[in-house]
Amino acid sequence: MPDHLLIRNFLASGDWCHFARIRMTSDLLRQVHDHDFLELFWVEAGKGWHGLNGRRLELVPGSCFLVRETDEHALASAGGGGLSFVNVAFPTEVWIQLRKRYFADQPDFFRLPAGQRMRCLSPEGVMDLEWAVSEMAGGKRDRRAIDRFLLNFFHAYERTTDGRGGIPSWLEKACREIQKPEFFVKGTPAFARLSGRVPPHVARAAKRFLGKTPTELVNDARMAHAARRLMEDAKILDVLTETGFRSLGHFYRVFTRHFDVSPREYRLRQRQAFAIQNLDFFADYAAKKKAVRL
Hints:
By secondary structure, this protein is of the alpha+beta class. It has helices spanning about 90-100, 125-130, 135, 145-160, 170-175, 180-185, 185-195, 200-210, 215-230, 235-240, 250-260, 265-270, 280-294, and strands at about 5, 20-25, 35, 40-50, 55-60, 65, 75-90, 120. The protein is globular.
């Protein structure tokens, strides 16, 4: 029998959602479970597998899943690079009320067949979600925070059904490649080189199709990397170097603008956040459930 997880065990007082940025190494497996809440996640880096109701689905960067209450599922990483993903869980009533207000004329996304709840986000979609989730990553998880996030999430999620939506392939490629440290450390000149276009043309296209400047796109990639490294407890000065910033003050300003908290505070909150990251948690959870029954 799979473990049955309860949302009340994940929420601090006043919270309406659970947020976790998780990195799994190749020797870790998340035990099969179902729950009494809705859940969604997307892959930021690495490869792995999603076991969903007896199916085995491949996970790659950009993979995005909606998980409903009765789904029996588990995650596993594959390969030496591990698997990094963002997970958001929330009570079903949050979605019921939000859907009634904003999505009543559309099918319930969480009630679609499993295959239709699996999407692959574009690089710009992943970057949009990085911005959308920044409020919760910074520790704000009240009702307004989860509502704002879900509205932004489903804006990006719906765009996956329309392919690239007219975004030029060269711009999409540049957005994908700039996620790699060897490129984002070199800043906007690297973004222009990856696109194969002159900087003014790149800037106009980025603003037209993505609503962002090349600097914002590069900083989005840098901040996603910084957040992952801080989650791994890396030193702030090391993260500064890895992301290509030359000034600690500049790094702090960009990070704080992106996540609404400083790098130091972000790392502290991630340490304090309750996240399922290995089998030790499940063993402890099972023991507590058994004790309650006794």
